[in-house]
TrEMBL record:
Predominant location category: other
Protein name: Tubulin-specific chaperone D
UniProt source species: Vidua macroura
Domain Tubulin-folding cofactor D ARM repeats: start-end pairs: 283-533
Lineage, top ranks: Eukaryota, Metazoa, Chordata, Craniata, Vertebrata
Assembly information from the UniProt record: Found in a complex with at least ARL2, PPP2CB, PPP2R1A, PPP2R2A, PPP2R5E and TBCD. Interacts with PPP2CB. Part of a supercomplex made of cofactors A to E. Cofactors A and D function by capturing and stabilizing tubulin in a quasi-native conformation. Cofactor E binds to the cofactor D-tubulin complex; interaction with cofactor C then causes the release of tubulin polypeptides that are committed to the native state. Interacts with ARL2; interaction is enhanced with the GDP-bound form of ARL2. Does not interact with ARL3, ARL4A and ARL4D. Interacts with beta tubulin. Interacts with TBCE.
Segments crossing the lipid bilayer: none
Family per record: Belongs to the TBCD family.
């Protein structure tokens, strides 16, 4: 999340469309359905393309509205066409379903034809469907929706029956019963047709003719099905789902007077089903939906006169409202409330409503969000129809969802679960939005809302509560829209501070953005938030997307407004420095550092005394955050004092200073540096040591200094014992603490170190460099690199020699790549610390006597290609070596450039060029960056860079920042141009060999293409081609039996021969290049058992056959040797490639024997037993007049 990375939930890139641009293509797709439906492939391609087009409009479906009718008519033509086969009809309905999915059936449905003549054909189509066919559910879904629309025709269905005696003399079923039977049939299926059947029921049963004759029977059937089904079985769940959907839709669309007689019976049946105990989320949600519909049926649909109604909603008027206007609003609201009380009348409320409300309140605590959301909406809808007194009782019961006990002034024990808090917040927002929370209740609700904005309960390794905080922001948003500014005025300071804190300091991006939106709504609607516009500008929706920016930048700006300073500080101290996430704890302490200048006295007199006891408390997370907070606040206060020319202890009492010193002693005496807790305590106290040292605290000569030094040494010495995740952080913290401690407390007035202390420290650290544990070498290497100049004075050579020994690879420590990396980093840091003096002493400066030794050590690191089970660990060493070479070189250039010899500079640039051509993106990018940094450095320029002018043409200065070395497509076309520069040719070709012959597809493709492009350019230049070939042979010769290079080099040679890169030599007999290449290949695979190497060599041998002369027979002989190799896969590969080679280079064999040779190669089973294979091979030798290979006696 930090830095440039996008946090989960951050805004994604979306295409904002302005019209249905693919309308013509969609029309063509629909028009071609008759041609494509027959073939599975074409049919699926058409469907996928249609889905791809329509899905783009999921977020802007209204753009389809003008085209819906045209698409629907074209598809219905296919449906009505009697010549359309069933598969084509199903395809048309699939397209109709896709449109419905995007636009929604409520918008799309009214466009269907719904005349009297459509009823029978649709019924007949439905009758032909198989309810269990999984391939045609879209057809059934759309037909049921269509039928629900046709059912609205205002004619008695009995008129459609006519004579109910069929031709055969049997009675025919009435249309009403046919539709009901269809609905019942599809209410118990498991596919989406069930949802459409519920819609059909809701529209059909409420028809006057059906209601009178069929409603009671239908409800009896539904309730009996509900009673007989169990949510514990899959079949029972499906049936209950359909029944509940049908009832919910029926009670939603039916008239109250029609449904009321059955409501009590349905509620009783629902109670008996005990849906709240079901583990099926959808059933509980449907049960909640049905309960609220029943509740709305029990009470009259009358808007409560007592509800709160806000007047003007003009944002401009709100923003201009000042004191007098607010008072006027108060008086108007009071008068309106009194009038409403007078007009209130008694409601006749049935007893079942209590049961309904109780179930909804229980639903607010459900474990699933969709159930809680449905319950919250139900609470809002039903409360709006209740008398004032009963509504107040509901609100009182609702507030019980937020019960908590105050244990201490800042600690809250939440008795209810996070689910109850979330559901309760949603319900409060619904009530507020509807004006059902009267101003008299605001004082009860606001404290709950403020608690919910910071709700965060730890569960195991993480916490719950982000949904509660998000819902609390929704409450604030709803209240801003619901109430007059005068009503919320007493709570404005608390609400504004809480929203600012949530917008800036919440861990989750969605909560920060919700708080920012709620704050914006309050600023616009209420107009009373202090500095609202200024804060909104800094903390808008996009600004709060980056957590680091919120904590370290936006918070400082907002803390500049006095109304928010102390609440923000208190929140960080009370809620964030003890957070379960260590990242939040560390960010909080840095935020406290940045905010300290806004309230230094408050920090020194209130916050610091509160933190000191916490820093030695029992809770690990609180202790960790408090120590870091003490360190950051102390450093900020001391910097502030120095800026104002005051003593560093100006803001501190004697007790505070003593408390800071006691932290280490207390932790040490209680053995809190041990175990897993020690992984947090060690870096935290090291940070404290660093900050107190940087603050120049008056502790010189105090015994605490030796205690701090012990902790630093002990942390570095025991890095092996801590987890790998914490190791790097502990090491860096200890090294930073050491540098600050030495600079402040180990230097005397003359700027020198105590000789005894210097001798003890340097000797101890250098001796630890040869420790058998790699991590100890790492720690003390970095510690030596952090020592200040006065401690290195007179000991420089001892330190450099010690670090040099760490960089040397020996059989015992070949895998100690991290130690070698840290030693190389330390060498560069030491050089930068001591500085350069050409004629100075090698014990004090980088000078003529030691510069060559330093460069030799660093250049050794660039050749480290160690691999182990972790992969290319040598890459870490190479990366550190490249960085250190750059730092040392730039240091010398800026001080005494004459110390850089031409040979050294050439080595550096050549090695960097090689690394820039290699296969691993990360290291290639780093090498390229260092290469260009040295090339383009101007203060002054680096001397002796070979071919500087040509390099600056290849890599212009303006490209330095935009060239992406990570991208093979950008890096390789440029780096291959260095092949034309003699000084770089060998190293670039060596790097390219590994890339072109590698396994990564993108690296291989772009590196090979770049190399082949270069080879094409030099085909007409014999001297350039000759020089390249000599270099290529030299690379091969120098890396014989070095599998890291030789195996990919063989693969590269195979590709180059196949691409005709050496065609110039094919006309000359016995050209020295192919002869030498053949010799080297033969030597490389001698006695090799590496399958990959052997297979690559076969390709090279086959490619060498194109060269004329005596060597051709030698190549055949070598290939025939491989035809009888002990490995069957090698024999088979050789035969296959020789066959392809003879087809490609047909001139190498007499046409008279070509067919016979090809037949032997293709017909023989080369994976058979060796004696059989050898006989066939010898036939081939005799045929082609090549000497038979002889068996060597063992």
């Amino acid at each position: 999340e930090e830095g440039e990375e996008r946090e989960p939930g951050a805004l994604s890139d979306r295409n904002i469309l302005d019209s249905f641009t693919e309308s013509r293509e969609v029309a063509e797709l629909i028009g071609n359905l008759r041609e494509v439906f027959g073939e599975l492939v074409t049919r699926e391609m058409a469907v996928e393309r249609f889905i791809g087009i329509m899905d783009k409009y999921q977020e802007q479906p209204h753009l389809l509205d003008h085209h819906l009718e045209g698409m629907m008519n074209s598809l219905l033509e296919i449906v009505w066409d009697s010549g359309s086969p069933p598969s084509l009809v199903h395809l048309a309905f699939k397209f109709l379903y896709i449109i419905t999915k995007v636009r929604g059936y409520k918008r799309f449905l009214p466009r269907f034809p719904h005349e009297v003549r459509d009823l029978q054909p649709v019924l007949d189509l439905l009758a032909k469907q198989n309810p269990r066919d999984p391939e045609t559910w879209e057809t059934r879904y759309m037909l049921l929706l269509w039928l629900s629309m046709i059912c609205l025709i205002p004619f008695d269905l009995a008129r459609f029956d006519g004579n109910l005696v069929a031709l055969e003399g049997q009675a025919r079923q009435p249309t009403m019963d046919r539709i009901l039977d269809i609905a019942k049939c599809y209410l118990v299926v498991s596919d989406k047709a069930r949802d459409a059947a519920a819609v059909l029921v809701s529209k059909f049963i409420v028809r006057p003719d059906v209601r009178q004759s069929r409603m009671a029977d239908f409800l009896d059937w539904v309730l009996s099905m509900l009673s007989k089904s169990s949510s514990q079985t899959m079949e029972g769940t499906v049936i209950m789902n359909g029944m509940l959907q049908a009832l919910a839709q029926l009670f939603k669309h039916g008239k109250r007077e029609d449904c009321l007689p059955y409501a009590a019976t349905v509620l009783e049946c629902l109670d008996n089903c005990k849906l709240s105990e079901s583990n099926q989320m959808v059933l509980r949600k449907l049960g909640m939906k049905l309960v609220q519909r029943l509740g709305l049926t029990f009470v009259k649909p009358k808007v409560a006169k007592w509800r709160y109604q806000r007047g003007s909603r003009s944002l401009a008027a709100n923003l201009q409202a000042q004191g007098a206007a607010v008072q006027n609003q108060k008086r108007e609201v009071a008068a309106a409330a009194a009038e409403a009380d007078d007009d209130d009348e008694e409601y006749d409320i049935p007893g079942e409503i209590e049961n309904v409300v109780e179930q909804l309140l229980v639903g607010l605590k459900d474990k699933d969000t969709i159930v809680r959301w449905s319950a919250a909406k139900g609470i809002g809808r039903i409360t709006g129809r209740l008398p004032k007194e009963l509504a107040d009782d509901v609100i009182g019961s609702l507030l019980d969802c937020f019960s908590f006990n105050k244990i201490f002034c800042s600690d809250i024990s939440f008795q209810e679960t996070d689910n109850a808090w979330h559901g309760g917040c949603l319900a409060l927002a619904e009530l507020g939005r509807r004006g059902l929370l009267l101003p008299s209740r605001i004082s009860d609700v606001v404290p709950v809302m403020l608690r919910a904005l910071t709700y965060d309960e730890k569960r195991g390794a993480c916490s719950v509560g982000s949904n509660v905080r998000d819902a609390a922001c929704y409450v604030c948003w709803a209240f801003a829209r619901a109430y007059e500014p005068a009503e919320l005025l007493p709570f404005i300071s608390h609400i504004s501070s809480a929203l600012v804190i949530a917008a800036v300091f919440d861990r989750d991006v969605n909560c920060r953005r919700a708080a920012s939106a709620a704050f914006q709504e309050n600023v616009g609607r209420q107009g009373t938030f202090p500095h609202g516009i200024d804060i909104l500008t800094a903390a808008d929706y996009f600004a709060v997307g980056n957590r680091v920016n919120c904590y370290l930048t936006i918070s400082v700006y907002i803390a500049g407004f006095p109304e928010y300073t102390e609440p923000m500080i208190d929140h960080l101290v009370n809620m964030k420095i003890n957070h379960w996430d260590s990242v939040i704890r560390e960010l909080s302490t840095k935020a406290l550092h940045n905010i300290t200048p806004r309230a230094p006295e408050y920090m020194a007199n209130v916050v610091l005394p509160r933190l000191l006891p916490l820093s030695v408390g029992s809770d690990l997370h609180t202790r960790h955050g408090a120590i870091l907070a003490c360190a950051e606040i102390t450093h900020a206060l001391c910097k502030l004092a120095q800026e104002n020319n005051r003593s560093v202890t100006y803001y501190f009492t004697e007790k505070s200073l003593e408390g800071l010193k006691q932290i280490h002693q207390e932790l040490c005496s209680r053995q809190l540096y041990r175990g897993l807790g020690g992984e947090l305590m060690r870096p935290a106290v090291c940070t404290l040591i660093e900050k107190l040292s940087l603050s120049k605290m008056p502790f010189r000569g105090d015994p605490i200094i030796s205690g701090w030094q012990w902790l630093i040494n002990d942390s570095l010495r025991h890095l092996t014992l801590v987890s790998s995740a914490a190791r790097q952080h502990i090491k860096e913290s200890a090294v930073s603490a050491l540098a600050a401690l030495c600079n402040e407390f180990y230097i005397d007035e003359r700027g020198e170190a105590d000789p005894a202390l210097q001798d003890e420290l340097v000797t101890q650290y250098v001796s630890e460099l040869q420790n058998a544990e790699e991590m100890i070498r790492c720690g003390f290497s970095r510690a030596l690199g952090a020592l200040p100049r006065f401690l290195l004075k007179g000991r420089l050579q001892q330190v450099l020699e010690g670090l040099k020994k760490v960089t040397i690879i020996s059989p015992e420590d070949v895998s100690f790549a991290e130690a070698r990396r840290d030693a190389l980093i330390a060498i560069a840091k030491v050089c930068q610390t001591v500085g350069v003096k050409g004629d100075g002493s090698q014990q004090e400066y980088v000078c003529r006597d030691n510069v060559d030794q330093i460069y030799a050590t660093l250049l050794t690191g660039v050749t480290d290609y160690t691999t182990d089970s972790r992969g290319d660990v040598g890459g870490w060493v190479r990366e550190a070596a490249m960085t250190s070479l750059m730092e040392v070189t730039l240091l010398l250039v800026q001080n005494e450039a004459e110390l850089i010899h031409a040979s050294i500079c050439k080595q550096i640039m050549c090695w960097l060029a090689q690394q820039s051509a290699e296969k691993i993106d990360k290291f290639r990018a780093h090498a390229g960056s260092v290469f260009l940094s040295l090339l383009h450095f101007d203060h002054p320029p680096v001397p002796h860079i070979p071919h500087r002018e040509e390099l600056e043409r290849i890599f212009p200065r303006w490209e330095k920042e935009v060239l992406n070395w990570n991208a093979a497509s950008e890096a390789f076309p440029r780096i291959t141009r260095l092949l034309g520069l003699p000084a770089y040719q060998y190293h670039v070709l060596l790097g390219l060999s590994v890339s072109v012959g590698g396994l990564t597809e993108t690296t291989l493709r772009y590196s090979a293409q770049s190399l082949f492009d270069y080879m094409k350019k030099i085909q007409s230049d014999p001297s350039a081609l000759g020089s390249f070939c000599e270099t290529l042979l030299k690379v091969f010769e120098d890396n014989l039996r070095n599998d890291r290079v030789s195996v990919p080099l063989l693969t590269m040679l195979d590709q180059m021969l196949a691409n005709g890169c050496f065609d110039m030599f094919t006309e000359q007999e016995n050209h020295p290049f192919p002869v030498k290449l053949f010799t080297l290949c033969k030597e490389e695979i001698k006695r090799s058992k590496d399958i990959r190497k052997l297979r690559s060599s076969i390709g090279v041998f086959c490619g060498l056959i194109q060269f004329q002369g005596d060597m051709r027979e030698k190549v055949f002989f070598q290939l025939f040797l491989l035809l009888c190799h002990p490995f069957p896969i090698i024999r088979k590969t050789t035969a296959s490639q020789v066959y392809e080679m003879l087809l490609t280079y047909s001139d190498v064999l007499d046409p008279a024997i070509m067919d016979q040779a090809m037949a032997i190669l293709s017909d023989t089973n080369w994976e058979a037993e060796l004696p059989v294979v050898r006989e066939r091979r010898n036939c081939l030798c005799d045929l082609m007049k090549v000497p038979r290979p002889q068996l060597v006696p063992k």
